[in-house]
Backbone:
């Protein structure tokens, strides 16, 4: 692999060279260690584009809603990048990345960049790959970056920490209001969208979420909005855009709440990198062969997992 | 189980889709599942794609290989349009395979257009997997 010419890559990205961007994202996904100098540089240059995370249960209408959202931003002459994450099979490691099916009307539009990403196993890396891809899209100068992921599993939810604005989609069909309220995921939403709002239980669910949001209080200086959407028809999408814009304005003010939020974001980012580095170190090369007899001893109950772990990391 | 900690294990990314008005998607959906079960990352774009839209998707997704399914008779036209558009976009190095109802007498013409994998009736999953590994230079574990 030839050494990276950082200046050249960055000007290619700024000029919107798709192949350069697309190939770099693949290398990011493959944890290519050669990219490190570029990724550091991208971080320093980044932070210019609002990142909107969209999550919710399978079948909630995320891709359909993103499709409508992209259309609306395009009508306002905004250029949009979408990173769509779908789960990998834990058995084969393969994946079917199908988010483009709902967004195919934007395929040929030079003002839209849609990239699919598989979650690839549970050993970390997804959150980092997503964060680095966001940095790369940021430098390309899109007006908005949307990150879409299924809201199941820690792995997928961790990505939402890299978003500036999190839109949580719920649907009336997914159990009663108690289901919505008890789920911890509700705590991550900056905006709540009750999708499939033509359903007869939509008002009930919206009211339950609004109650929960109100009881949380104004801790972070932002009261999450609860809106109703119909992703198929596009109803409520403009309102969603308005709230996304309002949240961006909220983040622009350097209040202590916003600062705390950004610190928390970076804290997780650093921890994610630590986790990934440690995992890589422990599972590869010399470490990997050293660890085998120790694992064997743990199986035979001659040693314990705590002792082995302490030997690996003090 | 996959070894996602290994940075060298670059997955095969295969874009699967259909062009034009052909709606017979049972075959390509079945293939998508079979490829997923073999450890391949399938970027599934479904039916009703346009040639420019598909080519831009191939580039943006950095697909290692593209698979098209045809159950309509106009596959030669579409393959020619696709290869032309890929060439104009600088993406002609991405291998293309076709499957579905592909007639023996068209194999040569498809080959001349730069279609390097042809899987007509009677092809096995293993045939496709062998082709994917050979065409992409990546191995399945």
Residues:
């Amino acid at each position: 692999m030839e050494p990276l010419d950082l200046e050249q890559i960055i000007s290619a990205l700024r000029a919107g060279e798709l192949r350069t961007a697309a190939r770099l994202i693949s290398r990011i996904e493959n944890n290519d260690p050669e990219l490190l100098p570029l990724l550091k540089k991208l971080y320093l240059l980044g932070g210019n584009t609002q990142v909107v995370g969209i999550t919710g249960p399978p079948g909630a209408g995320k891709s359909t809603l993103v499709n409508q959202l992209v259309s609306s931003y395009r009508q306002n002459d905004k250029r949009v990048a979408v990173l769509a994450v779908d789960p990998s099979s834990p058995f084969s490691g393969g994946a079917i990345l199908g988010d483009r099916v709902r967004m195919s009307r934007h395929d040929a539009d030079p003002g839209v960049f849609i990239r699919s990403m598989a979650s690839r196993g549970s050993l970390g890396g997804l959150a980092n790959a997503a964060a680095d891809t966001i940095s790369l899209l940021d430098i390309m100068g899109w007006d908005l970056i949307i990150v879409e992921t299924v809201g199941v599993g820690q792995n997928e939810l961790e990505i939402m920490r890299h978003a500036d604005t999190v839109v949580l989609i719920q649907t009336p069909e997914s159990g009663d209001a108690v289901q919505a309220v008890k789920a911890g995921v509700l705590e991550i939403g900056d905006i709540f969208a009750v999708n499939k709002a033509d359903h007869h239980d939509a008002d009930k669910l919206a009211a339950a979420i609004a109650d929960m949001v109100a009881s949380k209080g104004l801790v972070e200086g932002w009261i999450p909005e609860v809106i109703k959407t119909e992703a198929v028809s596009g109803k409520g999408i403009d309102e969603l855009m308005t709230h996304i814009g309002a949240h961006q304005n909220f983040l622009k003010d350097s209040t202590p709440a916003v600062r705390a939020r950004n610190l928390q974001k970076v804290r997780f980012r650093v921890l994610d990198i630590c986790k990934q580095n440690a995992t890589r170190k422990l599972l590869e090369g010399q470490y990997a062969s050293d660890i085998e007899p120790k694992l064997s001893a743990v199986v035979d109950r001659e040693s314990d997992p705590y002792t082995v772990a302490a030997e690996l990391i003090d | 189980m996959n070894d996602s900690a290994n940075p060298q294990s670059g997955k095969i990314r295969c874009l699967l889709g259909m062009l034009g008005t052909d709606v017979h998607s049972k075959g390509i959906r079945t293939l998508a599942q079979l490829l997923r079960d073999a450890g391949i990352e399938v970027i599934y774009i479904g039916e009703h794609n346009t040639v420019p839209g598909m080519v831009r998707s191939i580039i943006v997704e950095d697909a290692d290989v593209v698979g098209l399914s045809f159950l309509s008779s106009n596959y030669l036209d579409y393959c020619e349009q696709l290869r032309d558009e890929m060439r104009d976009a600088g993406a002609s190095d991405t291998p293309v395979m076709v499957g579905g109802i592909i007639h023996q007498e068209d194999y040569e013409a498809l080959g001349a257009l730069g279609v390097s994998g042809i899987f007509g009736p009677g092809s096995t999953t293993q045939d496709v997997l062998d082709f994917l590994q050979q065409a992409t230079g990546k191995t399945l574990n």
Chain A touches chain B through 42 residues (CB under 8 Å).
